[in-house]
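Re: the request from the purification team.
They wanted to know what the chain is likely to look like in 3D before they choose a buffer screen. I agreed to run a prediction and write the result into the notebook, where they can find it.
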Amino acid sequence: MKNPNNFQRLFFNMVRERVSDHEILVDVITDLLHCSRDSAYRRIRGTTDLSLNDTVVIARHFSIPLNHLIGQSDQSVVFQKGSFIRSLDDFRNYLQNSLVQLHSIKNYKSHQLIYQAKDIPIYYQFRYPRLSAFKMFVWLKSIYGVDRLDSFQYDVNMIPIDLLKLGEDLWEAYSKINSVEIWNDTTILSLLNQLEYYYEAGLLNSKEEAIAICDEYQDMMKLIYRQALRGKKAHHSNAEEFSATEYKMYYHEILIMDNHILAELDQNKKLYFVPYAGLNYLNTNDPLLTESMSLYLNGQKEKSSLISNISEKERNKFFIRIKTRIDQLKSKIEMTNPFM
């Protein structure tokens, strides 16, 4: 019996760090390499050498940078990405892939999702049908220029029903994930600015539609306020009920420049998401980068005020400012008419 070589031992140590709680290493290797369990055991123990092809297959599955195995320290990181959004089908795939990611995170018993929110986490908006349809229209028309929506006024019926249903499923999944959110006074602005722009440009089909979206915006913020008050996530279908899912909300006084999302799956496993070009995102489980992002985001928490469960005065002041901004936009809409 030959001794395991250092390369193979190091490689499988990295693989073990990435195996989910509900997975068994030998079963994963058996499925990936289409081999018997005995053959998989021999490779894991090092009594059978991995071929180059076997190594690449396993490395791709677990997002393991092979340069780490040969001693390079060039600070390179391997990311996974989905298809760039250019069409309704791409957007549908994005929603489906995001749903798979959320379910995967939820499967870890000790998980926590840290979300530094330059913009309102998109999952909340998916709970409200008019708000969800409006945001999808903005993304597809103004950001990605989907031809089907070009030169059209917005109408809720323009968004396919299956996309709205996927949005609802995403909200339900997020409502069951332990979350830490870091907000700032500017977090709400992009949605407000989009609604104001679309209304003033006459791209909404009526004043009543604009007001209805404002009302759902206000309902969304009431739900988030109640979560902060209770320190628990709202039930996905009843905003008046709460689950055992933990919710922590922080207020950061300094401008938040980027959206950062870090899933802490257990003590040693983390997954970092980097949004880019709108809704597109890259993700990596690179241990050095995810640990750095964990330190960074926990540092941001220390510079922020916890406003869930405690700090009633600070929490109320923050949400009053948000309500005031929404009320101001609603009043402006009620007093003007770009549809004359």
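For the purification team: The two ends are 86 Å apart (CA to CA).
Please add any questions underneath this entry.
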